[in-house]
Write a structure and sequence with these properties.
about 300 residues, disordered N terminus
């Protein structure tokens, strides 16, 4: 980890833990993977004892009732990097979330890997849209609690800081290609007890983690929410994007999504949007960003 990052985090970390900067690029070379069941630990709200799992709750049409607050995250370890990575200053160690390919390594094309590593530099942390109160990526949301409920023929997924997706179960065609959204255009369908969500029409501006992982606006993302019992959902996300990757790849949550008990005197996620533009840590990040560009050698 660079000296610049250590200086920056000594100022920023107590105020804005989500802006931890550089993570060694060796995560791309290391061995990751491992199933979610191997991850261990507990996310926020998971330490409380929950009721013994019962049968899958069902709606009038016989399909699973996903209503509830759910969390598949383990601390902040995977908001930094998705592949297996060591701990460091302000960074929790974590096993990889990639379950396919078996190596646990994201199959970037060479140019895309170089771009991912550029984004991972501590001096480029200012570019992360989350720090500007813009949207979390779909995969990044799964490090935090989410609320799911049904509304007519739609499934509504409400995540951190008002990142809400309305998944239609009756629509069959995506929006016209000229319409581009932060988290794409989701269309859902049931395959047995699994809710399958297909998303397209991305704007290509989100980051899957602080570590800079990304996909292009033309990516196809397939999520699967498979209800195992009354308190457990297994979630996976498969990304197909021939512009960025050499093959499709799949991630899962750090642990299976567990139903959270009713909160006692508070909420399990950001029901109110606590992010605000122009916060002090963002000013520090902007200063580092500008200084790096001022000191960079100019091309002749």
């Amino acid at each position: 980890m660079s000296t610049r990052l250590r200086r920056l985090l000594s100022i920023v970390a107590p105020l804005f833990v989500l802006f931890m900067g550089s993570v060694p690029a060796s995560g791309q070379e290391g061995r990751g993977g491992g199933s979610a069941a191997d991850q261990g630990g507990a996310g926020r709200g998971q330490a409380a004892a929950s009721a013994a799992p019962g049968p899958i709750p069902r709606r009038a049409d016989g399909k699973p009732d996903l209503t509830g607050n759910w969390n598949g995250g383990v601390g902040l370890s995977h908001t930094v990097i998705l592949e297996e990575h060591p701990g460091g200053f302000g960074i929790q160690a974590g096993k990889g979330l990639i379950i396919d390919p078996p190596s646990g390594v994201i199959p970037y094309q060479p140019w895309a890997l170089a771009e991912r590593n550029r984004r991972r530099e501590d001096s480029n942390a200012y570019e992360d849209p989350v720090g500007h109160c813009e949207y979390y990526d779909i995969g990044r949301m799964h490090s935090f609690a989410q609320s799911i409920y049904h509304a007519g023929d739609n499934v509504v997924i409400n995540a951190n800081q008002h990142n809400t997706r309305v998944v239609s179960l009756t629509r069959r065609e995506h929006l016209p290609p000229g319409i581009r959204l932060w988290n794409g255009d989701p269309i859902g369908r049931w395959e047995g007890d699994t809710l399958v969500v297909e998303s397209t029409n991305f704007n290509g501006r989100t980051r899957m983690a602080i570590g800079g992982d990304f996909y292009s606006p033309n990516a196809l993302i397939i999520e699967r929410f498979r209800m195992v019992d009354a308190n457990t959902i297994n979630w996976t996300m498969t990304i197909t994007d021939s512009a960025v990757f050499t093959q499709p790849w799949t991630i899962t949550s750090a642990v299976p999504m567990r139903r959270l008990p009713p909160p006692q005197g508070g909420r399990d996620f950001d029901d109110e949007d606590t992010c605000h533009e122009g916060n002090v840590p963002l000013v520090h990040l902007k200063n580092v960003y500008d200084q790096a560009r001022q000191s960079a050698p100019t091309a002749k």
